[in-house]
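2024-03-11 09:14:02 INFO receiving multi-entity request
2024-03-11 09:14:02 INFO entity count = two
2024-03-11 09:14:03 INFO echoing inputs for audit
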Amino acid sequence: MSGMQIVFLVAAAITLVSAVLVVTLRRTMSSALLLVLTLLGVSVLFVLLQAQFFAVVQVLIYIGAVATLILFVVMLTRSVMDTSEPQVHKNWWLAALVSLVVFVALVVTLSSWQAFPQVQRAIPADSGENLAALGKALVDPNGFALPFEVASILLVATMIGAVYIASERKGEE
Amino acid sequence: MTINDLNTILPLVVLAGWSVVVLLADLWIPKDRKGWTAALSAVGLVVVLGLTLARGGTVQKAFFGTVLVDGFALYLDIIFLVGGLAGIALAYDYLKRMELERGEYYPLLLIAISGMMLMTYANDLIIVFLALELLSLPLYIMAGFARFNLQSEEAALKYFLLGSFASGLVLYGVALLFGASGHTDLPGLVNTMRAGTGNQALFLFGAALLLVGFSFKTGIVPFHMWMPDVYQGAPSPATAFMSVGAKAAGFAALMRVFVTVFPSLSDDLTPILWALAAITMVVGNVLAISQKNIKRLLAYSSIAQSGYLLMAFVPYANAEVSSDSIAAMLFYLLAYTLTTFGAWAVIIQMEQQERRGLEVADYAGLGKRHPWLGLAMTIFMLSFTGVPLTLGFWGKFYLFSTAVEGGFVGLALIGLLTSVVSAFYYLRVVVVMYMQPGDPPVKQNRWVNLTALLAAAVVVGLAFIPGSVLDLALQAVLQLQ
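2024-03-11 09:21:47 INFO inference complete, emitting structure
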């Protein structure tokens, strides 16, 4: 077992365990902090895939912005979010059983599939040039300018919705 | 960016820009005059409809082939834009009556339509995904537009959670297809499939995930669970618009992607599509029988209609039949759109404050007290059932006959039998309207009335010239690819 594989196993284990804890722990604050750990584990996986840029973006945006925002929301609304209701549905074991069966079936099917483990092509090494090309492609009409613009309209729609649903609650109730 | 690129997608650019203009203009429109916002949005839709028609159905590519405008896009865009106009006509009076009158409704509607139009142009899986999100997000908000009504909030939340789950599946499918071939553009995927160089296992998984994701959006059993609650909880005009728009756009995406890219996977996919179509028709129609609430009844009816539409996909890999069956599906989509908007126009006039007037029993006496509305509703119910002299009859006729042509006699038989079952609950509405005494309160509004009567007239009128409508649909399909 090479060093890379050990790092991968450790990072994957931390990611999975903390991800499970995020949804099972009762205190929202602990869940939010564990979410940070999960996202950090994912960024380690990106490094192992030689996608340094995505690793940095993962840390900067998901941990730096999204998770921080979630922490703020949890702290500001702690009294509202505390609930004593049961966390699991009464038939949870049935759902778990079905998921497990599907998972095992998928693993068995995939491992017996000849074509599956073939790697199509090697991952190109990440360098500064790739990054510049990515940036240019995002605003190039022959690249991703249209999807980029569509995404901005999408954000406008989301913003209208968020403001509409959240605003004026106090005044109208 | 060349001007040509923008010129090709000009209707879309104008529509998206106009939605922002309407949003800004709404700031200066006083609270009790939101009719102006509705009118402004309608004007924008008419202009875009004009631009779309003026451009015609010639095949044009833009943005390095990521978008493609052709007769197929033209046909569906007309459905979406006319549907948008009907959506505004239905919404204006209803929102005022239910004290929901807020200008944001109309820009959101315009953005949803731009998403649907983008879906018809999409020639790249990235665009397919973005268009899916662009049309879904405004619909989630419109479903929850009655903010202080718990049912509406529940509808929005359920729709949002399951919808984002479906989007996640679509995205996963796109990622697998990219992994299998190194392409996200449809021509690139087609070439890889033909050459057989891609990873076939990943292709199949990707295709299956896309199918599941779009089945969520179009309400195909067993991915239909959200539909009855969302249809019932959302404000009626939003339900009407989403039941046509989301479904047609979902099927548009399926048509583009499956017919062009995955014909060689048909050995694996055709039995799955067969089974999905069959159980959707059976489950939708059987569950509709016991519904007492008219909105829920139409929700299950809409699920059943998805089954009929999906039927056209089953022979999709058979080149001789597929263009006929897809044309039959486009034809059916037109009939479905007109009938649905008409039926909802009647429901909206019947709905009273606090969600009263929504039970089938409330329709007692409608046929005698308001003969025109009763007649219109009768026509829509007959068209949904597929009775001759309505557009719905020809829709089902073409669908079933192409299924038989493709060698799927069993499926056509299931379709025929479930149609007979559906007659029971559709005709029950007609029986209640004419045979039971009552004096239902009706909130007449000329725009809603106009939508209902116009839709009824067209449903009957076009039934006399089904051949020329089918020709239009066939032309649209021949340019697909």
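2024-03-11 09:21:48 INFO post-check: The first helix of chain B runs from residue 3 to 8.
2024-03-11 09:21:48 INFO post-check: Residues 28 and 46 of chain B are 23 Å apart (CA to CA).
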